């Protein structure tokens, strides 16, 4: 049980934080690094709006990570209308991977994803040090933000002060913006709303994924963070998110270029020109609250959430996107109908059957799920038939 203190510790000290970052950069320079990590990535805010899929991690039958299937899944998600994907959250069986596997999954997934999709890396670990190390790896692979859960193993000794210290310490040192993760299904306590409101003032904490399933808690979190500092984020001309990968210079492939080796006489170098930089504008956003419950997508949006990160979008992204599109178009009746359409699959596949159900649903709908890693067990034949019936009208 989370022990509450009589007072929340003092608000974030921006001057102290700046001094900490400068000291860290000086240390990196003394170590001979060409460019301080913090100066490149810190405080590059990210718009998180719309439907995000919490994606699975495929395995071979012998439980090795199936990297080719990760590539295939991410490429297909990239062709959908999803705003982005979360790699190695709870749905990705992150706690069942070692650190080497985690880094390789993050690397392969990022490489296979279209630049315009927002990528969020699940990096939660029990210690601040291990969490920050994975955040640094995610930055190296050009993720846009990191998802950080609360520590849980020593939950009986975790006070409110410890929760604040954990998230602040991670955010102080993370090269990417931090998204808090409230997941009471797997962590034996919830992050109190007042703690979220306090953390929302940290310049490197930009939002929260709340998987409590409570619309009232979403509404309360939105209200409690209204006074958090507003940030300017880069967006496209149609006000969609601009990722770091979109801003990275890349060459335009063209069939009109002749290989240098085919040119006669002397030495020549042939290379395609760099693609034209994208045009961006700025948009002001506050602390961004996202729901982690597929059963309340419509209700959470109505309560003020900027979007959702849900497992059902891993196997039925179009059905989830239809809810969001109807809501954006102010067709509330249609949005409710679309929400009701996924209700049974959300409850029985995601809620009752869990990871194994989600992965088989991915198989059924043309993605690759495969078997979960032990100790989780695959579905029985009877359960597979049940999933097939539930997804008859949710095929992609």
Q: What is the average per-residue confidence, as pLDDT, rounded to a whole number?
A: 88
Instruction: Look at the structure and give the CATH class.
Output: Alpha Beta
Sheet with the most strands, sense and barrel status: 8 strands, parallel, barrel
CATH topology: TIM Barrel
Specify the CATH homologous superfamily.
Aldolase class I
Fraction of residues in helix: 25-40%
Number of domains: 1
**Span between N and C termini?**
42 Å
Give me the count of strands: 10
- Which of globular, elongated, flat, extended, rod-shaped describes the shape? globular
Q: Please give the CATH architecture.
A: Alpha-Beta Barrel
Strand content: 5-15%
Strand order of the largest sheet: 1-2-3-4-5-6-9-10
Strand pairing plus helix content: what structural class?
Answer: alpha/beta
What does this 3D model show about the protein?
This protein is of the alpha/beta class and 396 residues long. The protein has one domain (42-247, 279-390): TIM Barrel, CATH 3.20.20. Helix content is 39%, strand content 12%. The protein contains 15 helices and ten strands. The protein has helices at residues 14-30, 37-41, 67-78, 99-112, 128-140, 160-173, 193-199, 215-224, 244-247, 297-302, 317-328, 332-341, 343-352, 354-364, 381-390, and strands spanning 50-54, 84-87, 118-122, 145-149, 178-182, 205-210, 231-235, 281-285, 288-291, 307-310. The chain has an eight-stranded parallel β-barrel, surrounded by six helices. Helix 3 (67-78) links the parallel strand 1 (50-54) and strand 2. The radius of gyration is 22 Å and the shape is globular.
